Amino acid sequence: MWKLTGNSNLPIYLQIVDLIETKIMNGELLPEEKLPPERQLAEFFGVNRSTVVRALDELTARAVIVRKQGSGTIVNAEKWGLFAGQSTNWRHYLTQGGFTPAVPYIRQTGVMERADSEQVIDASTGELPLEMTPKMETPSLSWQSFIAEEQLEDEAGYRPLRETVQKQMHDAYGLNARPEQIFITSGAQQALFLITQCLLKPGDAVAIESPSYFYSLSLFQSAGLRIFALPMDDDGVIISELRDLYHKHRVKMVFVNPTFQNPTGLVMSLKRRKELVKVCAHLQIPIVEDDPFSELAALDSEIPVPLKQLDSDNVLYIGSLSKIMGSTTRIGWLIGPTAVIERLALARQEMDFGLSIFPQVLANSVLNTAGYKEHLKQLHQVLAVRRDHLIAALEEILPNELAFIRPKGGFHLWVKLPVEFRSICDFDIFLANDLLVMPGFLFGVKETVIRVTYARLEKDDSRQVANIIKQILIEKSAMKLD
Q1: Looking at the structure, do residues 123 and 58 belong to the same domain, yes or no?
Q2: Among 317, 315, 350, which residue's Cα sits nearest to residue 332?
Q3: What residue stretches are annotated with the HTH gntR-type domain (predicted)?
Q4: Strand residue runs (E) in 121-235
């Protein structure tokens, strides 16, 4: 409580003055509250008693405190209200709230992205660059037409779009879902938010595959959930580890991203998928399957069926258009049992998180145009080329120094570095070299790994990325020698 920050250029006695004034202003010290004795304050601050006396003299001169012979030093009740202003201790509320701010690394990455400097290479943002978004015309509709389309919307979303999603899921994966089992959301994160807020309660244990981008989202902590890492191998989550977590912590839900997993790019094998749904059904643990990348498989690769097709009752399936149509297309969907969809739709309505009709009508129009499939085909080709350019550059410039698995789809390359980064701050070296990547600690792992988003890199960018990583490794090796 009584501690100086140590990073001020002010004289010590003025730092003490500021600290006491701050405690009064935020309500930690109340009118007529007694301060500790001078000798005790000197011990707290690690200073001579004379320094404390000088600080208290200054506060007395400002009429902030009153020093009474035989009674000690108290906060001035008469001047306190004028001096302190608002007495609510907002700092306490800020630290007690459920929302967890982004870690400094992510905030700094965001600042550098928005600066839009030509020197900065963005290999961190998990979104399509503008030049890869669909080049299709939007429907020409009048204001009255949009109002008329609203009549086709209920709590679960715009029915024509739900019917379109139903058809696409059936054609692509053989998944049979009725429109009433499909819930339109403003992206995958709204679906995750509603699941964590409405189907779980604070203190519940959830298992999340590790590594995973889920660890970079604050919504799990904000919901008061206990998170347990579910280790993976090359085939996906390790089933024996899930059993152990269930018996130790009574896991209530499992969150996975089985196809082109973010950040590793791995695809859970069909055998492992079948094992996962079987074990979870036996233990009565619902599975949340996040699947934003399935439509981004390379043209020469086959992917297993979704978990949802293997167990339609126990799996909540989340899909999204943002990875295909760009981040501004905040449209996703959740497929689940009718009772669950009704519960989440009602909860969203009560929270006033309604979804505008405009993006739903536009998304439905785009999905039903002939140009959509052509866009997907072009997207597959461009992503495969960009992936190959990055891998070729890394193998040429850093031969045998990095470890990674060539992904068969998605946006990302998960790269293990040959040097040890001892702390989170060590990764700032990437920012200092104008390279934006996502370090492993953001995905819940301690190893020295980075996620490089090749979707945003042209050929020259990939070579620059490889050269910068090489320079960083040289710098880190030199630091180690020092």
Answers
A1: no
A2: 317
A3: 10-78
A4: 121-122, 153-154, 157-158, 182-185, 205-210, 226-233
